[in-house]
Design brief:
It is built from 5 helices and no strands. By secondary structure, the chain is an all-alpha fold. It has one domain. Helix 3 packs antiparallel against helix 5. The longest helix has 35 residues. The two termini are 27 Å apart.
Length: 127
């Protein structure tokens, strides 16, 4: 589930990059449809991922090391990132996007960096 959630977080901003550059109305509408469907698909997966993580934490409860708290903060940040994607999608739907495709290219890198940090935290367990 987590892999599917990340796949959506990687691809949705990529659609935003294309939407920000698109000038043809038919192509814009097609990309917008793709973005809507992807967001609707990824949102339940996010909730399933969170529920599974919480269930695992409760089942294997023990004193929580510091690295896990940082990982949880990053996951909460990803939930915020997904909600920001929704706000950006709404801006595209109303054709009020003010950001450039370059901004969206950088925005698209956020989940990649978070995933890298989370994997390093889990593997190295630094504190």
């Amino acid at each position: 589930m987590m892999v599917s959630w990340f796949a959506g977080l990687f691809y949705l901003p990529r659609i935003f990059v294309n939407l920000a550059m698109e000038t043809n109305d038919a192509a814009y509408d097609r990309l917008l449809l793709m973005a809507r469907k992807l967001y609707r698909f990824v949102t339940p997966i996010m909730w399933l991922t969170l529920a599974t993580g919480i269930a695992l934490w409760l089942v294997y409860w023990r004193p929580t090391p510091g690295w896990l708290w940082l990982k949880l903060a990053l996951v909460i940040g990803l939930v915020g990132y997904q909600h920001m994607c929704k706000a950006l999608l709404v801006a595209f739907e109303s054709r009020r996007n003010t950001r450039s495709h370059v901004w969206f290219r950088w925005f698209n890198e956020v989940p990649v960096i978070v995933l890298l940090v989370v994997v390093l935290l889990v593997v190295l367990k630094p504190f």
